[in-house]
Specification:
Layout: E1 36-37, E2 42-45, H1 51-59, H2 62-66, H3 84-100, E3 104-109, E4 116-124, E5 132-138, H4 146-160, E6 166-167
Parallel strand pairs: 5-6
Antiparallel strand pairs: 1-2, 2-3, 3-4, 4-5
């Protein structure tokens, strides 16, 4: 497999990894799925419209998220949080990544009230061993969904996405 080319932008926070172009992460012409629904949760692409609820969700669960498999480096979420304005910039970046096919971030919603209860990230792996790295988190008060979410996403990736070598970050 050829090594992926990356370009890191000056204003791109290093903790988010390299900027990838579409043809390096998914096949040309691939149309990414935009939803996954179960009785327990529903996924849709994360965007600026989720800012307030997303910010409240992860700010209420920083310690829980930092102890979730897949968040070993201690960079996210920031221990002291961030402003809602910085969160909005982060959501805009994720939406742009999705539009370019450089990464795919989904908000996890409660199917009953559409409240944000978590997030799923699908980004290029920094290791040649994997095609994609999958990270997910749920709010501390919904921790019972951590494993069902990770397992549902794994099944979804196996059936609807192009990657064969999936790094589930120890899940």
């Amino acid at each position: 497999m050829p090594q992926r080319r990356t370009r890191v932008q000056e204003d791109w926070p290093a903790q988010y990894g390299p900027v990838m172009t579409r043809n390096e992460f998914v096949p040309v012409g691939f149309n990414p799925p935009t939803s996954l629904a179960t009785d327990q949760f529903r996924l849709e692409p994360l965007g600026p419209q989720h800012n307030q609820a997303d910010h409240a969700a992860w700010m209420s669960s920083i310690e829980h998220i930092r102890s979730t498999p897949g968040y070993p480096d201690g960079n996210w979420p920031p221990p002291t949080g961030m402003t809602v304005e910085k969160n909005l910039a982060d959501l805009r970046r994720h939406a742009d990544d999705f539009a370019r096919g450089a990464g795919f971030t989904f908000t996890v919603l409660d199917p009953g009230d559409n409240d944000v209860i978590g997030c799923v990230y699908l980004y290029p792996s920094t290791s040649d061993e994997w095609d994609v790295t999958v990270q997910s988190w749920v709010r501390a008060d919904r921790s019972d969904l951590d494993r069902p979410l990770a397992d549902a996403v794994a099944r979804w990736l196996a059936t609807d996405w192009p990657w064969k070598r999936v790094d589930r970050c120890g899940r």
